[in-house]
Amino acid sequence: MLAITNANLIMLDHMVMDAVLFVEDGKIAGYGELWKTDIPKDCEIFDAGGLYVGPGFVDIHCHASNGIRFQFDPAGSVPNTLRHGTTTLLPTLAYQYSKEVLLDGIRLVREYSKTPEGESVGGIYMEGPYLNAGFGSDKTAMSTLCWNKGVFKEDYQELIDELGDFVRVWAVAPEREGILDFVKDAKKGNPDVRFAVAHSEATPAQIEALMPYGLCIGTHHTNATGTIVKYPECRGVCVDECVNFNSGIYAELICDKVGVHVDPYMLRLIRKIKGDERIILITDASSHPGPKPPGYEGSDDLYFDMEGEIGGTKLTSDQACRNMMKHTGAGFPEAFRMASYNPATAVGFTDRGEIAVGKRADLVLIDDRVNVQGVFLGGRQVK
Ligand SMILES: [Zn+2]
């Protein structure tokens, strides 16, 4: 058994200060304040030196790391996320690729996930391919793809078959004609799959119609989501309002340093509306070749496409937590809930995401500025 001593544990709704955490067979075996907890003599001791210890981050929406897309080179990109504390990662395949490119990416990521280095890969998040072409970067690339001509079984079934139960999330634009057939077929391919509303200008009714099939996530909430103008000069209701309204839908948030993707005031408003139980911090880390257009001074963690539109971030989950804490005043338990427990729960991982007896010993050791000092994956120290 391993005893991590001299640690401050970040729990779901409190802290355990000056604590010891026991790890056995890759799982959390117990914990307690040092002064009242006996450490068995045969324990291997790891002195955490007063650091904070939280559950490893679960990043469900992330395309790349270090500027390398997972779908092209997982070995060159996934380890960087692990070094930053992401112990469960859903490599995310975006909408701007052809079927052949997507199939190759799925195969490559799945093969990598079976290697010891790929243990943190927990499945795939498909951001598309059936989105609303009006709400995304790379419009030129999108316009030439079969995905934008219509929702056809002869196009999508091969993706569903190749993914099997490796897919955890399909993001869709519910207003696309024929989307319900796709959703039903996707559920046949993996009954546990979740759906997200993404890059969409659906009405609340169109979104809510998919909730019985497992729609429970709002993809990068308030970002690349549409607005509907029904009456001039009156605010319409669309994706953001529906995600805000439904407690059954988690809101993904991209928290960059300056608050470009989501304004800090909006972050605070969403915390108030959704509550800390329904927010998921994502990195949406990506890679795009465009130069930084004027107006983004102070931002060094964003990518832009060739049309000058924001195309994701350079974030890792530790930075996303730090930014959320900075912008909203969230503390460690709240930020870790948003970056670990909530995403794990939303996509159906019941064995991780919190410090609790019997859960996977996926742990991140941080200082008070959320700088990652150590990482344990299934009880094995990997940083
Ligand atoms: Zn997106």
What does this 3D model show about the protein?
The chain has 383 residues and is of the alpha/beta class. Helices cover 27% and strands 26% of the residues. The protein has helices spanning 74-83, 99-113, 139-143, 153-163, 179-189, 204-208, 239-245, 264-274, 317-328, 332-346, and strands at residues 2-10, 15-24, 27-33, 44-47, 52-55, 57-62, 64-65, 68-69, 86-93, 124-127, 167-172, 194-197, 215-218, 250-254, 279-282, 302-304, 310-313, 363-366, 372-377, 380-381. The strands form four sheets. Strands 1, 2, 3, 4, 5, 18, 19 and 20 form an eight-stranded mixed sheet that branches. The longest helix is centred in the first third of the chain and has 15 residues, at 99-113. It starts with a strand and ends with a strand. Bound molecules: zinc ion. Zinc ion binds next to loops. Residues 127, 198-199, 219-220, 224 line the site of zinc ion.
Provide a concise account of the structure shown.
The protein is an alpha/beta fold.
- Largest pleated sheet: 8 strands, mixed
Category by helix and strand content: alpha/beta
Mean pLDDT: 96
Corresponding CATH architecture of the largest domain? Alpha-Beta Barrel
Please count the beta strands (DSSP E, at least 2 residues each): 20
**Low-confidence residue ranges:** none
Ligands bound, unique: zinc ion
Summed up, the helix count is 10
Topology diagram in text:
Elements: E1 2-10, E2 15-24, E3 27-33, E4 44-47, E5 52-55, E6 57-62, E7 64-65, E8 68-69, H1 74-83, E9 86-93, H2 99-113, E10 124-127, H3 139-143, H4 153-163, E11 167-172, H5 179-189, E12 194-197, H6 204-208, E13 215-218, H7 239-245, E14 250-254, H8 264-274, E15 279-282, E16 302-304, E17 310-313, H9 317-328, H10 332-346, E18 363-366, E19 372-377, E20 380-381
Parallel strand pairs: 1-4, 1-5, 6-9, 9-10, 10-11, 11-12, 12-13, 13-14, 14-15
Antiparallel strand pairs: 1-2, 2-3, 5-18, 7-8, 16-17, 18-19, 19-20
Helix pairs in contact: 2-4, 4-5, 9-10
The site of zinc ion has 6 residues, from loops.
